[in-house]
Design goal:
alpha+beta, elongated, binds FE2/S2 (inorganic) cluster
Length: 134
């Protein structure tokens, strides 16, 4: 019962605002500590405001050995944002991921729910530009 509620809040606000979580605790009877435990366990949730688009750079073994760290640097430089942070315009949040389940496409990144694989780094500007307008 709690997960669908949190997913709906996340879909509405793109993160889980504290005052809304307090409201959920009051209305459902779940302790706030339990709600935070769930909210912080899943990477798809955030308790701080996030950008419109979430960029997950896979740093899992298959991607790491094929240079995903360089992809992370390139994205970070291009967007002028540090890993784990959100761009000033609130358009992108850049995060590391352990494995996004596409090891055969290493190195891979995921933007929202779209996977981009076998990247060399040259494609990064074009990929990011697709999300700058929308
Ligand atoms: S290690 Fe990157 S997708 Fe699995």
């Amino acid at each position: 019962m709690l997960m669908p509620i949190l997913q709906e809040i996340n879909a509405e606000f793109n993160y889980l605002p504290e005052d809304v979580l307090q409201y959920v605790a009051r209305e459902t009877g779940y302790p706030l500590s339990h709600i935070y435990k769930v909210a912080t366990f899943y990477g798809s949730f955030s308790t701080v405001p996030r950008g419109k688009h979430l960029i997950s750079v896979c740093l899992g073994t298959a991607c790491y050995v094929k240079g995903s760290e360089r992809l992370m640097e390139k994205i970070s430089d291009r967007l002028e944002v540090k890993v784990g942070e959100t761009t000033r315009d609130m358009r992108f949040t850049l995060k590391p991921a352990r494995c996004i389940g596409c090891c055969g496409l290493a190195p891979a990144i995921m933007i929202d729910n779209v996977v981009y694989g076998k990247l060399t780094g040259k494609e990064i500007p074009k990929i990011l530009d697709k999300y700058k307008a929308g």
